[in-house]
Amino acid sequence: MTYDLWYWDGIPGRGEFVRLALEAGGIAYRECAREPGIGEDALVKDMLSERKHPPFAPPYLVAGKMVLAQTANILLFLGEKHGLAPGGAAERLWVNQLQLTIADMVTEAHDTHHPISASDYYEDQKKEAARRARGFRDERIPKFLGYFERVLAGADAWLAAGERWSYADLSLFYLIDGLLHAFPRRMCSVAAQFPKVMALHRRVAHLPELQSYFSSGRRLPFADGIFRHYPELDGE
User: Fold this and answer.
1) For every one of its 236 residues, what pLDDT tens digit does the chain have, with 9 covering 90 and above?
2) Is 1.20.1250.20 the CATH number for 89-207?
3) What are the recorded Gene Ontology BP terms (predicted)?
4) Is 26 left (phi over 0), alpha (psi -120 to 50) or beta?
5) Can you list the alpha helix ranges (DSSP code H) found in the chain?
């Protein structure tokens, strides 16, 4: 089966978590909104079409008759279906728990530049963004990365303590990539505190399964979306 992945064109966004799993797993898929002659108007039309289980927002994955939305939900499905997570129920739920924790941090990273309203421009909430970003840099980055460092201390190379990566490892890689883009000064000053997290980031960056994707035009650079670099929001 070839899956249909729907996400906004032009930004990696939350769709990148799903892309990394599909690419690393060698799973056939089409990124529909990026198909020639399709575009985002078709995404909106498809998303609003009548379905028994409609998605609230992209990303969503069409798998035969199923339509799966919410990043962690999509990855839970792919993990079980394609062996991107351990086989036992308890371990699959553990990987899902890690993914949901990553999602929590992703939301907080986004809210540093849109703390009041996602519908308003950053320029309309710069004062509030500066305060939110300071708290995120000083308190939340160390707290979240400290948690993942602690998980890796008991798991060795990969989060799920297996000999192979899971989709949560790919997602943590993308989260760290986003933080390095959005908060390069802060990440430079704290990286040494989290050597296992940074080592995992390097391991995923060199996974043979991802090299073709990384060197292709399919991998989009950071742009307006979750992870944005505003120098005034960064700091040591």
Assistant:
1) 899 999 999 899 999 999 999 999 999 999 999 888 777 789 999 899 989 999 999 999 999 999 999 999 999 999 999 999 998 999 999 999 999 999 999 999 999 999 999 999 999 999 999 999 999 999 999 999 999 999 999 987 899 988 899 999 999 999 999 999 999 999 999 999 999 999 999 999 999 999 999 999 899 999 889 999 999 999 98
2) no
3) glutathione metabolic process
4) left
5) 15-24, 40-47, 71-82, 89-111, 126-135, 141-153, 167-182, 184-190, 195-205, 208-214
Q: For residue 136, what is the DSSP state?
A: I
Task: Specify burial of residue 89 (Cβ count, 10 A radius: 0-12, 13-18, 19+).
Answer: exposed
Token digits of residue 147: 């948690």
Report the C-alpha gap between 50 and 52 in whole angstroms.
7
Give the domain ranges of the chain. Answer: 3-82, 89-207
Helical axes 167-182 vs 71-82, angle rounded to 10°: 140
Answer yes or no: are the C-beta atoms of 69 and 5 closer than 8 Å: no
Third-level CATH fold of 3-82: Glutaredoxin (3.40.30)
